Amino acid sequence: MNEKPMSQDEIFNELDKFQAMDCKYSDGRILGSMCTEAHPIAKEAFFKFVDSNLGDPGLFKGTKLIEDTVIKMIGSFLSIENPVGHMVTGGTEANIMAIRSARNMARDSKGIEDGELIVPKSAHFSFKKAADMLNLNLIRVDLDDNYRINPECVEENITENTVAIVGIAGTTELGMIDPIEDLSEIAIQNDVHLHVDAAFGGFSIPFLKERGYDLPNFDFSLEGVKSITVDPHKMGLSPIPSGGILFRDQSYLDAMSVDSPYLTIKNQSTIVGTRLGAASAATYAVMNYLGKEGYANNAIEALDKTDFLAKSLKELGFELIVEPKLNIVAFNHPDLETEELAKLLEERNWKVSCSSYPKAIRIILMNHIKKEHLIELLNDLKDISNSI
Ligand SMILES: *Cc1c(COP(=O)(O)O)cnc(C)c1O
Q1: Distance (Å) from CA 266 to ligand 1 centroid
Q2: Mean pLDDT, residues 340-358
Q3: Mean pLDDT of 92-105
Q4: Is any ligand 1 atom within 6 A of the Cβ of residue 243?
Q5: Is 218 helix (H, G, I), strand (E, B) or coil?
Q6: Residues facing 354 on adjacent strands
Q7: So what's the pLDDT on residue 46?
């Protein structure tokens, strides 16, 4: 490290050089990201609250009120009037919190020591981290032909050690929505915690449903659902790190609270201690600014681009893995390995992402991908297709 102070100009010159190495969303070349450029109003609010610490909410009473309000606002489109929960760093932390709560509840009420966690094969890898950290045995169950969890396989895998079942509303790789209604029934019958991971779909499915799109129910209106993950930093247009975890009532937070001696509060249920208030302020700002109408328009626009891409790909002879439900398209070329196609696209300066199950090129139609980028991409794909 430098001995003498560096000038502000020099520092920012250097930072600019680093930033120039980054990809920019606005180039429209990032095809596989679930994040996008945050809304300007969210960024402004973020910087305004950059010093507030929600780990010590007695000192930041206003920011704490914002966090509680945001959780309640999210609850309002997930069919729950008085949710409890927190704004966290993202889907990973939210999922870990949900499973930690479920594990502790199962331990306290049923004496389960070596717990098992049932997730679909399509589950995000954050559940591998959760299982590892929480000392749970991860049971990954099979999917149906449309890459949704198979409820019968869930039932078969429930044992006296099951601490939670996970269903996904908007899978990371394909955007599929698990049959949460069936999972809810199974969870109630077996007295097991059902957690819904709507990190990706949480900020679109409810608004699409309200506009008449035929999508399944996945929220707290289903009695078995005890917790839901929703990521404002994906379809919510809030800056990273903005995640949300909602529980049905206070008992789920109490199950994992620890004493917090030197702070203005007596106990804490979050994983993180010192934690940012800026994400809550940013999410509050963008949610109010857009309203349900804004999010609905946003989600519909994304689906329109999805339909356009899906239709055009088929016309060019590419094969879709499934008909998209949300704004993700996964496809292959019949005569090329996925990796080979990915390489050819990378050579043409597209930032490509591949799904693992099944292997495919995966495009997430986020705000930064405009129709003109898709036309460019389709031209390149046509070229590639013609040259083999
Ligand atoms: C993105 C995603 C996560 C992880 O969220 P992070 O914000 O990256 O931690 C978890 N679950 C699903 C379904 C996701 O799409």
Answers
A1: 30
A2: 97
A3: 98
A4: yes
A5: coil
A6: 361
A7: 98
